Amino acid sequence: MDLSRHKIPNWLTLSFIPLALAFHAVFGQGPAFALSGLLYSFILLFPFFVFRVLAGGDIKLGMAIATFTGWQVFLEALLYGLIIGLPLVLILAWRRVGWQGFKATFSRYGIILGTRRYLAPVENEMAGLKVPYGPALALGAMLAVVLNKYQIFTLVS
């Protein structure tokens, strides 16, 4: 849905938070584990929402992931999501604006650095695009969970 409509529905993300709390209360590491993931992810991700780096659906998806995985695996999921998302962002941007859009963005950044005044992105410029980041966050979460589950690789012990 994020790829086609640029929306992640609230019913999808917000329904996972109470499910994760119930799961961890009954089968998992306790509700404190899930709540710490929820709180930590909110504190970490909310500034990205305030500065319009990520949209609200991406933030809620991250909170749902962290409630299930806990804050440590969530950090890995976020890192993997960023690593996966960068090429996806560049590919989607290239498909939408091409070389001219990239050139316009880098030219604008040069002007901003030279004049030290902000210039807003214009239409058909890479920086002005809305890029769905939900799929990258979800793939990053799946990768972090699998790598931790099978103890293949972990960044946080």
Structure commentary:
By secondary structure, this protein is mainly alpha-helical. It has one domain (2-149). Helix content is 73%, strand content 0%. The chain has helices spanning 2-5, 10-14, 16-26, 31-50, 56-69, 71-115, 134-149. Helix 3 (16-26) runs parallel beside helix 5 (56-69), helix 4 (31-50) packs antiparallel against helix 5 and helix 5 (56-69) runs parallel beside helix 7 (134-149). The longest helix is centred in the middle third of the chain and has 45 residues, at 71-115. It is elongated.
Biggest sheet character: none
Low-pLDDT parts are: none
Mean pLDDT: 90
Radius of gyration: 18 Å
The end-to-end span amounts to: 34 Å
Helix content: over 70%
Q: How many H/I helices?
A: 7
Number of E-state strands: 0
What fraction of the residues are assigned to beta strands by DSSP?
under 5%
Assembly annotation: single chain
Reading the helices and strands in chain order gives HHHHHHH
- Structural class estimated from helices and strands: mainly alpha
In total, the number of domains comes to 1
**General form:** elongated
